[in-house]
């Protein structure tokens, strides 16, 4: 469904336009995704050069990995096709 749909009511306001609307609205997001992923990777362990090499979101150390609730860690995992808890 697309932004024209009302999923809670199980209907589309303009049937047949969902794919076209989604393609148009999401194209910039799809095109930016690889760049956003690289940016997230760069800040993931931004402090790794120093003694306090914690994640800027969850604060856990690189050697221990991210907290299960870390938004940055989960975003990176999801973008790389890994399962997120």
Can you walk me through this structure?
The protein has a two-stranded antiparallel ribbon. A hairpin with a 4-residue loop joins strand 1 and strand 2 (11-12). The protein is globular and about 45 Å long. 42% of the residues lie in helices and 5% in strands. It is built from 2 helices and 2 strands; from the N terminus they run ββαα. It has 85 residues and is mostly helical. The mean pLDDT is 77.
Spell out the key features of this protein.
85 residues; mainly alpha; two-stranded antiparallel ribbon; 2 helices; 2 strands; 5% strand; globular
Number of strands: 2
Distance between the termini: 25 Å
The SSE order reads EEHH
Find the structural class using helix and strand composition. mainly alpha
Q: Compute the gyration radius: what is it?
A: 18 Å
What count of helical segments does DSSP give? 2
The side-by-side strand order for the widest beta sheet comes to: 1-2
Shape, per Cα inertia axes: globular
Give the percentage of residues in beta strands. Answer: under 5%
User: Helix coverage percent of residues?
Assistant: 40-55%
């Amino acid at each position: 469904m697309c932004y024209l749909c009302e999923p809670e009511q199980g209907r589309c306001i303009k049937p047949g336009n969902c794919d076209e609307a989604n393609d148009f609205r999401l194209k910039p997001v799809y095109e930016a995704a690889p760049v956003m992923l690289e940016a997230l990777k760069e800040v993931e362990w931004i402090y790794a050069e120093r003694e306090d090499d914690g994640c800027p979101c969850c604060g856990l150390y690189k050697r221990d990995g991210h907290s299960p609730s870390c938004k940055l860690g989960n975003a990176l995992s999801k973008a790389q096709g890994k399962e997120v808890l």
